Amino acid sequence: MNNGHRTVLVTGASGFVGRHVVPALARSGWVVRRAVRTPPRDANDVMIGSLSPATDWRAALDGVEAVVHLAARVHQQSDERAIELYRNVNIEGTLHLARSAVAAGIRDFIFVSTILVHGRSNYGRLPFREDDVLTPRGLYGNSKAAAEVGLKEIVPGSGMRVTVIRPPLIYGAGAKGNFALLKRAVLNGLPLPLAYVKNRRAFLSAENLASFILHRLSHPGDDFDVFLVADREQVSTREFVERLARAADTSPRLFWLPPLLLKMALGISGRKEAYDSLFASLELDLSKIAGTGWQQPISLDEGLRRALRQTDS
């Protein structure tokens, strides 16, 4: 405890998602202790170096009531070095932190995983559900799935509750990856081959993710629970881009390109997985989070407006 306030340790606090989650926690009365790899800038920061199976978490976890684990290795090239990094950081590093949290008497542990533990698309199947058999794709998805399995094994008899959150693409100010590419294309008036895309995909604003994390901390449930968390509206890639453009007060430049031709082009450029992100459907069954009583605070359109009007940092 800190002056009667609850203390939460946040890993990955300086990353894109962390820059949305940390202020939300602080506004709700939590004392936020940021686990950082560089010299601390704040009295509540604790330098832990790199996330690994050898990280010493004792100082960071002292007096902490809950852990929000956002840190992860992402977007690493597929080679032997990448496999080792994903294993050390996303799997062994996560499980070592969880075991350290158990030893420190932490009551709640929130782990932000990824929807990629289910795969990159539905391919005509029903929307993904929390209890579906995991079919992870890519090194990142496989590492997150393995971490989930390990966390579930740690829980029995530990006295610690673990919540796993599996988000789809997270958008917001400072987002990288596919959202940053779409945002840049829309703002610069670049043409996009999405004129006749009729898929349905889930998206999640960073503000809504932060809101659900807060809700879970104040409304804990089972000792081990998994949630698919996304905005209520699940729209086509084309509509997402159109609404992004509307939020930017501009018009998107969309054209049609044969999907097979685009798939070949992306494969040649080494971005084969981008095809699924643009053209395939990724629908989520959100009935479980609806049953928790959580209400998303902002709509898709408001989330896009915030993503555009805030300065990336």
Q: What structural class should be given to the helix and strand makeup?
A: alpha/beta
- Number of discrete helical segments: 11
Main β-sheet description? 7 strands, parallel
* Number of extended strands: 11
Quote the CATH topology of the domain at 7-175 and 203-232 and 283-298.
Rossmann fold
Mean pLDDT: 91
Uncertain residue ranges: none
Distance between the termini: 31 Å
Kindly state the percentage of residues in helix. Answer: 25-40%
Shape: globular
What's the CATH architecture name of the domain at 7-175 and 203-232 and 283-298? 3-Layer(aba) Sandwich
Strand share of the residues? 5-15%
Strand order of the largest sheet: 3-2-1-4-5-6-10
Rg: 20 Å
One letter per element, helices H and strands E, the order comes to EHEEHEHEHEEHEEHEHEHHHH
At the fourth level of CATH, the homologous superfamily of the domain at 7-175 and 203-232 and 283-298 is NAD(P)-binding Rossmann-like Domain
Question: Under the CATH scheme, which class of the domain at 7-175 and 203-232 and 283-298?
Answer: Alpha Beta
InterPro entries: Epimerase_deHydtase (IPR001509), NAD(P)-bd_dom_sf (IPR036291)
Protein name: UDP-glucose 4-epimerase
Pathway: Bacterial outer membrane biogenesis; LPS O-antigen biosynthesis
EC number: 5.1.3.2
